[in-house]
Design a protein that fits this description.
Blueprint: H1 4-7, E1 18-22, H2 32-49, E2 53-56, H3 70-79, E3 85-92, H4 98-111, E4 116-121, H5 128-135, H6 145-157, E5 181-185, H7 188-197, E6 201-203, H8 212-222, E7 234-242, H9 246-264, H10 274-279, H11 284-295, E8 297-300, H12 302-316, E9 320-324, H13 330-344
Parallel strand pairs: 1-2, 1-9, 2-3, 3-4, 4-5, 5-6, 6-7, 7-8, 7-9
Amino acid sequence: MGTDMIRGVAAGTAPAPLSVLELATVGEGITPGEALRHATELAGKAEEWGYHRLWVAEHHGMPGVASSSPAVLIAHLAAATRRIRVGSGGVMLPNHAPLVIAEQFGTLHALHPGRIDLGLGRAPGTDMATANALRREAEVDPDAFPQQVAELTGFLDGAFPPGHPYQALQATPRSDDRPPIWLLGSSGFSARLAGLLGLPFAFAHHFSAENTEPALDLYRSSFRPSGVLDRPYALIGVAALAADTDEEALRQAMPGALSWLRMRLGRPGRVPTPDEAAAYPYTPAEREFVRGRLSNVIHGVPDRVRDGLEELRKRTGADELMITTMTHGGAARLRSYELIARAYGTNA
């Protein structure tokens, strides 16, 4: 598998590719079906505006997120687009048997060759009660992640070492090539593993900003060239929101901040409206939490967001930026992605 499947960006694009992390967020007064239609519209527009890839994330038990089944949503979004890479950011591998993921993504790759990415996470993507319901009697052991990645790779490649208990098994459908595997993380564990395996690495800067540079340093120092990459390739997830004025950008960013606060308080729900977020009776501690959350969202007029993205890219040395935008409804999100694409120069 060539590195162009990971790095391939048309000449004349932005200094680093921009991509999209999609959660199919469900706002107050919006049905899950409407949220998924918004996600489909965004995929088409992201392709039109020059974004490099669009990933969907596996979350469970969250009323404000409709992306709990990445493979199903990826199939739909890939069928609704023609060029943009579509993938998982990520599949939470400990929730699934590796053979099942190999079959799902083998099918997606057969349907959309050269356009599917398989990003893998180590966390459950939910609370432990839901994780136990997903896994049933399977042991919940985050330290087994390297073994699970090796097993999944064996199924995708059709190659297990001699004597392996699954040596005679095949994941079908399977092609001579396969979707590129990425490791995702918000700490050093997956950073080191991605480096040792010579895989591309995606770091969740949007909710673990303090760990970004240490994790990327660990990834690069641990990196060993492989058949996938000859040098490290790091992507970071970035929370960003652009609007026509700074005031409107802040207004549209507040619903996402309130959603994070409610999750922290154990009360996850649908994404509130900007008016609801503005009227919420924040305690001093809650207001401080929201301020901290907003400090990690690059928001404002397009030029301000572009400059913030470029500063972050240069500071971290990231090869690619993946933007996630949490606000209420589809119109403000679409407008934000369009403004960012035009300001950043993605050939929009």
